[in-house]
Specification:
single chain; 121 residues; two-stranded antiparallel sheet; 5% strand; extended
Length: 121
């Protein structure tokens, strides 16, 4: 390559072949756990939803998250929802225990007017 020649770089996106994608899915399958149905209400009465699971699923959730209550959150303005990660959940639990933040269900109630304001409701 001569000194005056321009340097050329390229990015190549590598997509897995269909069989590789299926093997990856088989190694770490995704299963539905529950369906969360939202209802219109004037005011939030109880933001805690209870989902019945088998004893083994319950034990596994407690082992991973350290609790049986996991926070569902959303980003604004697009309302993309997700569960707290185990690390986020454990941090929330520790902060609640030390009374540095509200309990999750109280936080949901308190946040509702701000959520509505941000959404322009």
């Amino acid at each position: 390559m001569s000194e005056g020649a321009p340097k050329v770089t390229a990015e190549v996106e590598m997509r897995p072949r269909p069989t590789e994608a299926l093997f990856e899915l088989a190694r770490q399958p995704i299963f539905p756990l529950c369906v969360l149905k939202f209802e219109k209400r004037e005011k939030i009465e109880n933001p805690v939803v209870t989902v019945g699971v088998s004893e083994e699923v319950y034990r596994r959730i407690r082992k991973i998250y350290g609790t049986d209550q996991i926070i569902l959150h959303c980003t604004l303005p697009d309302m993309v929802m997700g569960l707290y990660t185990p690390t986020m959940q454990r941090a929330q639990d520790l902060l609640e225990e030390d009374r540095l933040v509200l309990r999750a269900k109280d936080w949901v109630k308190k946040a509702q007017p701000y959520l509505e304001k941000e959404l322009g409701i």
